[in-house]
């Protein structure tokens, strides 16, 4: 598939010491960059997201993953802002990643995908790749960097690594580190992929197969963590599938066929090696350990304004972790607003139509725009 | 392996309409039955438990799973009580189940295990099998039925199905139904088993293999749900395995190797078809639907005394579900005590050394014993 992309021949040096050469960054933009180049908003996507934030996703034919939030007249108003969204490094929608063609140390193509040989990456590596894109677009300073979940981790790395380039930062439904429980859930998904006979030590591309069953299980378990017990209960409860009484068959509950559907559609659009690479990057994320053991150290002296948002029923990134982040920002004397959205929709709520969240983010961006005269 | 068991040649008719013939119930007892046969306490085990409640488990060589609670001078005092624990119907430690030899309609052995052909069972079927054992032991009335998690579901079925046989009932860390989220987690485990190449449509016994990778993944995801984020955080946090800095290797976090270990040891002692059969039985469990849509209907007119216990950080069977059970028991005018134990150890806490819980259960059993003059 052809994706719009920027290619950087000199490549990118990674935290692991490896170099990706050349570096490709696939991206999409919405709205127009103003003459002063001061109205750019960078959106960072989550684990299985992509650059198609506000338009039809070419593989699935579905609308953009943040269509509710990004567009003309919407909270991230593309009539006013120039919105950029890039596929993360390690992703599988056109940026350098395991599904792309492998290159040697001189950047020469090797006639096979990277696959399992794609180097380990970090959230900071993802952000460095985005920085190259932003430079390439001729933008010195981003009006805002916005993202939820793993996207929020990138927002934090942006603000920590390039403080002078970020006027406003909105880390949403995220944390300054990936918790032991979240690492454990990721590990279940990885074990499922590794256990699939079509995994073939990561070289599944050699015979044109994919570890569909393992990747599907990985998606199923992750999907549960994106929802809440209340959301699952309301959506499905214990409703039986096409039966009024217990039938003792497979897939007897609606929640089961829903989950299986989530798993089986996912494998058509996502690469297993990419999933492994990105889940590892999330697990490695620990802002404190990158800054002498204190999250506050990452933000001392910052002039970036922050909006931290959490969702009350999110148990993947609970409000308590957002509060800890706010305390660290306060300790760094940063300008920070915090909002906890009352919802029973779990982690997924950051992607859904949550009016209070949308008003909070819309107002935050407006305030930033007014400060810089956009 | 030889297990102590009672065999009932006439078999057991199941909720599904199938008949298991003969019915085998493997069990262990501790302490002595008194002359009046009034001091029997039945303990019901959880999903992956067994009858070795208070002695070395012969396959693992580890101590009994409720050693902290059951024994001489312990809260379930085997100097005073005659404790019975049976492997559940559908289990894999000697009771009729998928790993045992299949029999035909006349009860004749067929020279192969049941495997996938073992019929679907319910929690009530498990309890009916235990009832046969209790009758066989010459006991008309149980002083108490005690169990946690799936064991608690059995306790509720005992009190609902044989109210005159149960003086006291202690359903612990359980609920009157299995929630959509819990069904979803079970479905992930089943999908992992079904996706294993050694699953072979459930006929893995034919070539002496087991779907070890799939069963291991099922155990891993279940194990996370037994713990709490706080417990995982305290136990492992983000500690790295044998490294002081990020190494970008597999199994980099301690929590990962711990989980993998949990998975790989489990497959040595548990049968995959048994796991599928029992998780399904848990998913089917819904006391209200068996009693005209109201849990209270299951207990109207009961003289059984109840102790309902929950653990504050248990997110698999949250306190709210225990409270709902208590409200239903109140609505049925049953005699019920309720205790929520403050702990950060998650669902697993019911198996651990929790002094407040142990005192509550010990006191409850003493009270029951005094009422019947034991």
UniProtKB/TrEMBL annotation, chains A, B:
Enzyme class: transferase
AB hydrolase-1 domain residues: 39-352
Biological process terms in GO annotation: homoserine metabolic process; methionine biosynthetic process
UniProt KW NADP keyword: no
Annotated GO MF terms: homoserine O-acetyltransferase activity
Active site: 149, 314, 347
Reactions mediated catalytically: L-homoserine + acetyl-CoA = O-acetyl-L-homoserine + CoA
EC code: 2.3.1.31
UniProt name for this protein: Homoserine O-acetyltransferase
GO cellular component, one term: cytoplasm
Keyword Cytoplasm: yes
Pathway: Amino-acid biosynthesis; L-methionine biosynthesis via de novo pathway; O-acetyl-L-homoserine from L-homoserine: step 1/1
Subunit annotation: Homodimer.
Task performed by this protein: Transfers an acetyl group from acetyl-CoA to L-homoserine, forming acetyl-L-homoserine.
Family of this protein: Belongs to the AB hydrolase superfamily. MetX family.
Keyword terms, alphabetized: Acyltransferase, Amino-acid biosynthesis, Cytoplasm, Methionine biosynthesis, Transferase
Cellular compartment(s): Cytoplasm
Main subcellular location: cytoplasm
Residue numbers binding substrate: 219, 348
UniProt xrefs under InterPro entries: AB_hydrolase_1 (IPR000073), AB_hydrolase_fold (IPR029058), HAT_MetX-like (IPR008220)
